[in-house]
């Protein structure tokens, strides 16, 4: 039995329906790879090797074809991240408005390195390229929400509140 | 045709050709890394820039098609500047470690750096380093040297079909990677080190061993499978360093089996000096003593000769000469995989060339694990499938092909006649028939709907049937093959009396064997039985290993217990424990001789490797035996011997005089008709012995490299469909005609229910002689 056939995580039947509709839109199933990867990341939180195998099998692709895309785009995660993913923009606009200090402050407060996750699994801090919201620099994207013109105090409040909720978003 | 100017010279090329190809065809030098004639165009190295009049910037010639009247320049000052900049860019992260790199001296990057690069680098920043991977026993990596041409990625996708190489990450972090620390699963993986234009993917077995300028190249023919690929053996002294595909050969690739078998050339299994058995062990002896002992054993005795089909044409003919000169009436056999005892019932070898097969409208693979059996032919079929041309398959297992066949049908071996009869019924319903077809059809009771697939394919304008081991080793093989011929004739793909099917042979030289041994040969099983029954006094074994290979290991063992064995060969194999005398014969790499492949294509090897020990070409050993047995020596040199070859096979006449591509066809016994057997199967499970390219053949078993690969790619020894097992995986007792034995059984979904697959090794080795078995305790 090849590695691909071993027990894999499964898409829900509703998801599979969606994927089927999606594939039908394109001449090749390969074209549906990006949206399916987004769905998989939504369902499984991150794209583990098993999830990548599942996507490959669902779309009839070689695992390597999926891995190439997953590693190319930084928004696809191959490792689990915390409940709160703090993505700090460090491009020119934000940098001029103190993004670097913000990153340092977050890392010091949470006692992690950039890209790391706190031991309680609550926070992950990463640096990202331009978030496209330079007017609100510095910008931190927390999960799917933009937080603009943030400073260290703002983040401290957020962290305290998040800790208070004990991991519930 | 399109006319264009390359450096002011007018040339004409086929429309759609790329500028790079047009330049290559017409001798204009254009540097390139990522272009490869056998792979798709990626255009990512940007080294092949040329100037086109009227274009405002240089064009990548590999991806720009030619146009009428186009004026191309390949050598200008501006281009030199561009190329210098490209080289600077490609070399930015390159470690420049040529003195310790295996590729040094045969490296495009090195050559172009000298030709087009700047004399010194300007890059003073940090260079990156890339982690190396373990890609298995054949490919070693030094990924820091990689220039990201993606030839290997395209090879894995398009040629190997495994897709197990890829480009990960991007920008400065971009790297080529295999599937997470897994070994490459392709049987063609050795080609990766050949196509890598730099020193990133290297040949692991020859890593840090030699330099390209130290080796001598010997053109030869690979005899590890009937494909008979053209190879170049690279040696230093008498040591083989590498085997590669011949540059101008028929095929651009060779398989790992043919490439890495060379470590067996120097293995302990080699017979490099004459040996005789004394007080239980084989001890070295002089040629005179060993020949004396052999003569003593064989003179005036009833002798059975078993030989391997992989010797050179000259070697094989000398066996026949030995037979005629001193053993008249001896039993001679070479086929270890044929159960059907009907004499001369069928001849092996292809009726079409591999190119014709690739080009035909339909291809049907009948009962063959073609990827293992003929990896290079399978690669051609894969190319077909990728181009959207159909390849269908009927067989007992969904053998892995790395590209899905167009249509697929699973059947048990006992259903073959019903499949063929159903196909006959279908085509005769459409008004197609051939002499004898109705009678054949009437002789078969059942009908199997997989025949529809066969009939559909046959109705195409052109169709190639590739007949494999499941049919060749069938007890009813002659009838099945005859039935397939009838089908091909009925549908107009073959003339009356001609072969239609392509029967994949067991070894090399099938066409020659049918000419030279057509009138004296018998079945190997019959010969071993005769020895066991006291009808023979001694066995002469010339280069095959009936104990390790083939269907008759049990019978061979019984025969060896009864009669003494004289062994002549290059490699000893498992059978050597019975040998009374061993006479060393030169390996295929060490002889001046000719080889014929399954298509009938003749190749002559002229500059062999030097001998490692006391071995002599087989024909000289045979002549010496004739002399000492008291016969008249029929040939004292190769020319005289070749005159004898022509006597048996007149088609060989021009083989040594003309430089043209020569093909010969097999001698056929076309008058015979074979009705399907009506014998009902007596046991519930059909048994198929599974072929593994890493285990079959004495040469391969003597190779440590291939054995290692065999372990990595191995399936369970004994396999059945899970439903057949009814859940009881593990130790099961199997009942055969010769008794009961306990074996470990594994299960796979892609095996047809009702069939037991057996790999020829370990405990299963003896099972492989059977064709039907039962599970004790019943099967579901």
Walk me through what this model shows.
The complex is a heterodimer of chains A (169) and B (780). In chain A, 44% of the residues lie in helices and 11% in strands. By secondary structure, chain A is an alpha+beta fold. Chain A has 2 domains: 9-72; 84-164, Glutaredoxin (3-Layer(aba) Sandwich), CATH 3.40.30.10. In chain A, strands 2-1-3-4 form a 4-stranded mixed sheet, with helices on one face. Chain B has 780 residues and is an alpha/beta fold. Chain B is built from 25 helices and 32 strands. Chain B has a 7-stranded mixed sheet with strand order 14-13-24-23-22-15-16, sandwiched between helices. Chain B has a 6-stranded mixed barrel with strand order 27-31-28-30-29-32. A 5-stranded mixed sheet of chain B has the order 2-1-5-3-4, with helices on both faces. The interface between A and B is medium-sized, with 11 and 16 residues.
Number of strands of chain B: 32
Q: Main beta sheet of chain A: strand number and arrangement?
A: 4 strands, mixed
Helix and strand composition category of chain B: alpha/beta
Please compute the radius of gyration of chain B using only Cα atoms: 28 Å
Compute the number of helices of chain B.
25
CATH architecture heading of the largest domain in chain A:
3-Layer(aba) Sandwich
* Biggest pleated sheet of chain B: 7 strands, mixed
CATH class group of the largest domain in chain A: Alpha Beta
Low-confidence stretches of chain B: none
**Proportion of β residues of chain B?**
15-25%
- How many domain units of chain A? 2
